[in-house]
Specification:
This protein has five helices and seven strands; from the N terminus they run βαααβββαβαββ. With about 150 residues, the protein is α+β, with helices and mostly antiparallel strands. The chain has one domain: 3-Layer(aba) Sandwich (Aminopeptidase). It has a four-stranded antiparallel sheet, sandwiched between helices. Strands 5-7-6 form a three-stranded antiparallel sheet. Strand 3 and strand 4 form a beta hairpin. The longest helix is centred in the middle third of the chain and has 15 residues.
Length: about 150
């Protein structure tokens, strides 16, 4: 799939929110209860995404003018990596991660940390991240993973 990665703009918030909510409802819902999905959704509405775009380095993947994925870097922590369900498993997530890593290297970050969903654990493991520990927020399980930046993405 041919797509472009760029920094998110403030007016991307609604489209980014749409991608995240679709991925949560269609992909993550296989690994999490409806209650957990509803709780997580509250953090990713258009207004919440507009605030995150101001606070973090947020990237979007586009095909044409359609936003099909997003990822962000918050210091050394990778957050909100989501790809639209209809284009998952086509390399979009890996392209986003490559941009996040490039940005982290430029900032002098030596270790990347990602609080992974159960759904994305295998994706991050394929990129060389290793599991450090589990974290729970209520019934939501998150897998804390990390990877030194001394290695390139496989």
């Amino acid at each position: 799939m041919i797509c472009q990665i760029r920094a998110a703009y403030a007016d991307d918030a609604a489209a980014v929110s749409k991608v995240i909510l679709a991925a949560l409802r269609e992909t993550n819902a296989k690994d999490y209860s409806e209650n957990v999905i509803r709780q997580v959704e509250k953090s990713f509405g258009p207004d919440e995404m507009a605030e995150l775009i101001k606070k973090r380095k947020v990237f979007v993947a586009l095909t044409g003018s359609r936003i099909i994925g997003t990822a962000s870097l918050d210091s050394k922590i990778i957050r909100t990596v989501f790809v639209a369900p209809d284009v998952q498993r086509q390399g979009v997530g890996k392209l986003l991660m490559t941009e996040v890593e490039r940005t982290a290297r430029e900032a002098g970050i030596e270790m990347l940390v990602v609080p992974s969903s159960v759904t994305a654990e295998h994706f991050y493991a394929k990129l060389g991240f290793r599991t450090v520990r589990d974290s729970y927020h209520g019934e939501e399980r998150t897998i804390i993973m990390e990877r030194p930046l001394s290695r390139e993405i496989p």
